């Protein structure tokens, strides 16, 4: 099957769980035949229980539902929580579940980091939002800022075929990117062109990064990138700086209040290189940034699960939607510019790390690490990840059930 640009799509930007969860739960409620859901994190909290209820009700009315969770990101769902779904008929799988060693999770690399939902063959969701209460704005100061898209139109078939081809027992279909597929300028509102792209550890190792690089090469006026975990490869860093030096307004939004302190340390190692090269770097300080979005000029945009860090660009399974549409581009710009103006602090030269021998050494090491990371991945512990299906618990035989019901009716214990 050829995966290329698809015309005639309706794409809606969804900000945070406040917009994302109601849209997903409503789509699940409207499902007629099939639901496929992939996510990195599913917590057994208020949001997770709402998803549980939505899938349970769908399965009980005869909808075929399949769930794929990452074994690292979602290791703690209770047996009763999962069993209630499997008993109802939900196919429940974990990607690469592995036992803990001294209480530590060992499946650190090659995670299934995608966040995809497909309902029948008519609507899909792609983005970076997991299923947990921390994506809701009322969670408090630690609530995450994040994005997803709701999609209707021809590209849904590509997303559906992708998830189906990756289910166990499906014959692999060789998927090639046709480089001659190009997006053309689209002037029809509500008729967005879209391209579904993913990263795996086989034929599509650098597809998402390649589209970022192509975007930076083609940019003429403005680029805005908001990315939670920013520590990209050397090629992407060089492309950012090169775009800025030829006059493109390159705005980069990174975490200023990260959920993991090491994220801030890593990004700041790159500040000298980027800021002195003309890139406008902004630290988002209202709450933790979890988004993975970008836009270019007045027509190109992307929303997805891929961070711009070594894990996402070289190890994890990721998925993004690339959108060629002026209306969507402007919608995303109208969301990001107020964030820059109200919730970010621009990094100026006074905030750059001092030019000490120690800081210079760290920067040099960081750059060499980024330049050579893809080759270094080959030295990391490697195994073939597998999908483990959770079998529904064995049910009592029919005669035993009948006997129990008869005894209950007679008041016996």
Automatic annotation (TrEMBL):
Residues 392-413 are annotated as: Disordered. Pfam families: PLDc_2. Residues 400-413 have a biased composition (Basic and acidic residues). The keyword Cell membrane applies. It catalyses: 2 a 1,2-diacyl-sn-glycero-3-phospho-(1'-sn-glycerol) = a cardiolipin + glycerol. GO terms for biological process: cardiolipin biosynthetic process. The keyword Lipid biosynthesis applies. NCBIfam families: PRK11263.1. Belongs to the phospholipase D family. Cardiolipin synthase subfamily. ClsB sub-subfamily. Catalyzes the phosphatidyl group transfer from one phosphatidylglycerol molecule to another to form cardiolipin (CL) (diphosphatidylglycerol) and glycerol. This is Cardiolipin synthase B. It comes from Citrobacter arsenatis.
């Amino acid at each position: 099957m050829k995966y290329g640009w698809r015309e005639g799509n309706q794409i809606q930007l969804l900000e945070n769980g406040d917009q994302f969860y109601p849209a997903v739960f409503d789509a699940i409620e409207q499902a007629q035949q099939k639901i496929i859901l992939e996510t990195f994190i599913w917590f057994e909290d208020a949001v997770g229980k709402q998803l549980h209820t939505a899938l349970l009700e769908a399965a009980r009315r005869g909808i075929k539902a399949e769930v794929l969770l990452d074994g690292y990101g979602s290791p703690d769902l209770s047996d009763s929580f999962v069993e209630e779904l499997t008993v109802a008929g939900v196919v429940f799988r974990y990607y690469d579940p592995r036992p803990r060693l001294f209480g530590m999770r060992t499946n650190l690399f090659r995670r299934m980091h995608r966040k995809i939902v497909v309902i029948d063959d008519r609507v899909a969701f792609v983005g970076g939002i997991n299923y947990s209460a921390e994506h809701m704005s009322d969670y408090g100061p630690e609530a995450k800022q994040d994005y997803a898209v709701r999609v209707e139109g021809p590209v849904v078939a590509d997303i559906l075929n992708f998830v189906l081809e990756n289910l166990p027992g499906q014959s692999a279909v060789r998927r090639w990117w046709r480089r001659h597929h190009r997006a053309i300028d689209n002037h029809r509102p509500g008729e967005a062109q879209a391209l579904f792209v993913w990263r795996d550890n086989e034929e599509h190792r650098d597809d998402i990064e390649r589209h970022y690089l192509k975007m930076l090469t083609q940019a003429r006026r403005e680029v805005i990138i908001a990315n939670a975990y920013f520590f990209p490869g050397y090629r992407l860093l060089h492309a950012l700086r090169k775009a800025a030096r030829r006059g493109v307004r390159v705005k980069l939004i990174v975490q200023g209040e990260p959920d993991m302190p090491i994220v801030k340390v890593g990004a700041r190692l790159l500040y000298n290189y980027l800021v002195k090269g003309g890139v406008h770097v902004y630290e988002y300080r209202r709450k933790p940034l979890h988004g993975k979005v970008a836009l270019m000029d007045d027509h190109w945009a992307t929303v997805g699960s891929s961070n711009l860090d070594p894990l996402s660009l070289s190890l994890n399974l990721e998925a993004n939607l690339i959108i060629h549409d002026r209306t969507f581009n402007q919608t995303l710009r109208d969301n990001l510019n107020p964030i820059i103006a109200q919730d970010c602090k621009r990094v100026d030269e006074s905030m750059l790390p001092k030019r000490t021998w120690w800081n210079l050494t760290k920067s040099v090491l960081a750059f060499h690490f980024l330049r050579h990371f893809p080759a270094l991945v080959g030295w990391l512990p490697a195994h073939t990840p597998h999908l483990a299906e959770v079998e529904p618990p064995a049910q009592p035989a029919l005669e035993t059930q009948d006997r129990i019901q008869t005894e209950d009716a007679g008041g016996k214990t």
